[in-house]
Amino acid sequence: MEMKEEVRVEGFEGPWWRHPPMRNALAAGVLTGTAFLLGHIGAIGPFVEIPLYIIAIILGGFHWAREGIEELIEEREIGIEILMIGATIGSAVLGMWDEAAFLVFLYGTAEGLEEYAYAKARHSIRELLDLALQRGPGHEGWKGSDHTRRKPDHRGCIYYKTGGDHCHGWAYH
């Protein structure tokens, strides 16, 4: 059984609406809602409404569709993203552009929230590890401080010198 390499997502510090996947999904939702409303009250015709839906689909699906295509190419696996791309294309082929755009908005929002939560958690964990490493072995208040800390190696392990090198996996940095 082959072990998959863990996906590494950098932390994110800003507000949720500035997180790129979330921002794109929200912009797609505003564009989709506006096109839907204006199209259904007759303020714009289909020659304006459909291109607005297409722009919303591209904008809202950019992040998750790219991930799905990369997963298909690199890992040869069909994930939920590919299924959502298929559903979006199917709706568009049937002429249900509003359905396709709403689908992309809803799925993009769900993916954006998930990625935002993961990025915030990762950022918080990194801050806690940095604090723990500052207060851990080698710190003045540490009992029996014959330990000295070194920088992370190529695997992200932090080594402490205690007469021998020991990699502390919990000290992933």
Give a quick summary of the entry.
It contains 4 helices and 3 strands, in the order H-H-H-H-E-E-E. The chain is mainly alpha-helical.
Structure description:
The structure is a single chain. Strands 1-2-3 form a three-stranded antiparallel beta sheet, with no helix packed on it. The protein contains four helices and three strands. It has 173 residues and is mostly helical. The protein has a domain at 17-122. The protein has helices spanning 20-40, 46-75, 80-93, 97-135, and strands spanning 148-149, 158-161, 165-168. Residues 1-9, 142-147 and 160-173 have low confidence and may be disordered. Helices cover 60% and strands 6% of the residues.
Q: Could you give the count of β-strands?
A: 3
Query: Can you tell me the overall shape?
Result: elongated
Category by helix and strand content:
mainly alpha
The number of helical runs is 4
- Give, in spatial order, the strands making up the sheet with the most strands: 1-2-3
Question: Helical proportion?
Answer: 55-70%
Work out the strand percent: 5-15%
Termini distance?
A: 27 Å
User: Mind telling me the C-alpha Rg?
Assistant: 23 Å
What order do the helices and strands follow? HHHHEEE
Compute the average pLDDT: 78
Model regions low in confidence, pLDDT < 50 over at least 5 residues: 1-9, 142-147, 160-173
Please describe the biggest sheet, giving its number of strands, its sense, and whether it closes into a barrel.
3 strands, antiparallel
